Amino acid sequence: MKIDRREWDEYAFKDLFGDRDALLILSIPLSSNIYDDSWIWDGEKSGLYSIKSAYHGIKRDKEGNEGEDHSGFWRQLWRLKVPHKVKNLLWRVVLGCLPTKSQLHLKHVTIDMYCPSCNMVVESIYHNLVSYSFSQDVWGILILDVKVGDFEVFDVWLDAILQRFDHNRVGKITTVCWALWRARNNLVWNKKGVTVTALVTLALLCLENWTNAQDINFDVSIESLLPGDGSDHWVKPHENTIKVNIDPFS
Q1: Would you give the end-to-end CA distance of the chain in angstroms?
Q2: Can you say whether the dihedral through the CA atoms of 34, 35, 36, 38 is positive or negative?
């Protein structure tokens, strides 16, 4: 195109295309207005790029390629009444962003793929949070049969959990998943183990404290706390007694 005169370059088109294609292109009318070309983002009416519109565009493309609508699953996940760090963990797991050894291997990281806890099977998120014997002991204390099928894929398992259990149980299950992953990291990076009882206590206290913090009528004054009630708030020991504070993961 001859930019200065707003005309098609007829000779250039005839050199590049066949007669038929060249005639079709040359028949396209050009605008009489002269404006400089500029970049336009079609994800926003303003034409300006935004992270939000890019996220929704990628999500639509992914759902279109997979041929399934996962919007209901995501709505259920984001509406869970659990701490945000629990939702963040689940989100990373479902997107395949959690650095288990099997995931690191897929990213071409040179590392053995065995579970750091049992050193017997390839480490996957499903193994860590559901099928591993330690995890099964945790679920046993909660009296929850979370092995709802032979899925072996965490996001499919999580979807089944969301469909099977009520909100209270789903809250406990997902928060325990967070505690299990936290325990795994503490073992890998700090060489510290944890007992089944301590892990369950941590998870339930985390969920309880977060739930209480959402209740505007909850009394958070120190007078409302009783010694030994399981709260993570520090309470003065009784007279002539010694109080020992410990980390449940130590």
Answers
A1: 73
A2: negative
Write down the pTM of the prediction.
Answer: 0.66
SS3 assignment, position 8: coil
Q: What is the dihedral of CA 199, 200, 203, 209, to 10 degrees?
A: -120
Cα separations in angstroms, 44 against 51, 56, 126, 177, 232: 10, 11, 39, 37, 47
> Which one, of 12, 5, 54, lies nearest residue 30 by Cα?
5
User: What's the DSSP call for residue 222?
Assistant: G
Specify which residues 114 forms β-bridges with. Answer: 122
User: Between 133-141 and 196-214, two packed helices, what is the crossing angle to 10 degrees?
Assistant: 50
Rg (Cα) of the chain, in Å, rounded?
29
Tell me the one-letter amino acid at 191: K
**Per-position pLDDT tens, the chain of length 250:** 666 667 788 888 778 888 888 888 888 887 777 667 788 898 888 989 999 888 888 877 776 665 565 678 889 999 999 999 999 999 999 988 899 999 999 989 999 999 999 999 999 999 999 999 999 999 999 887 787 567 788 998 999 899 889 999 999 999 999 999 999 999 999 999 999 999 999 999 999 999 988 887 766 554 444 444 444 566 778 888 888 877 654 4
Sign of CA dihedral 134, 135, 138, 143: negative
Q: What residue has token string 């049992």?
A: 118
Question: Residue 94: left (phi > 0), alpha (psi -120 to 50), or beta?
Answer: alpha
Q: What is the DSSP string of 4-37?
A: TTTB--HHHHHHHS-HHHHHHHHTSPPPSS----
Indicate the SS3 state at residue 118. coil
Among 69, 43, 68, smallest CA distance to 56 is for 43
